[in-house]
Write a structure and sequence with these properties.
The protein is an alpha+beta fold and about 170 residues long. It is built from 4 helices and 5 strands. It has 2 domains: about 45 residues, no CATH class; about 100 residues, 2-Layer Sandwich (Alpha-D-Glucose-1,6-Bisphosphate, Chain A, domain 4), CATH 3.30.530. It has a 5-stranded antiparallel β-sheet, with helices on one face. A hairpin with a 4-residue loop joins strand 1 and strand 2. It is elongated, with a radius of gyration of 29 Å. The relative contact order is 0.10.
Amino acid sequence: MINLKNSKILAVLLLITFGFNSCIKLPGGDARKNPPDPKLRVQKNLEEGRGIQFGTGKKGGTGNFEFSSSNELWRASLDTIDFMPLASVNYGGGIIVTDWYSTDINSDESIKISIRFLTNEIRSDSLDIKVFNKKCVAQSNCVVSEKTGGLIPELTAKILKTATIYKEKKKK
């Protein structure tokens, strides 16, 4: 049974709840002041500064980021190494790292490629490419070393050539 003391507490709580709700302006807006079309509401919110924008570099930010599909250098790099499995791809951080790759299933040698973007411009010094070589005598006995030689200039040339083609297509 409900006793008198509990019912008084309940009545006070209800009175406080309903009383304060009439004094507090709830978030949201008056439907009469906002357009019914969602696209128009979004546009109005953006004009009033109530929208969220990611990666624009505005409001004190110094970044100049483009969306990854519009960055020719980024796309060309991914297309050049598309045969390799990717371990880590971070457009904002400007890095692509592949997983270990071997052409032969039973091979004891595999490579890993790391591409770091120093700028979005299509120039020979805009990429920092590193190739790592892993040789294994046994499953647990592997030696990893950074590989130098002709592969890095070949990758750089291929990426820059492809990026130039993408940029020309974008102009047309």
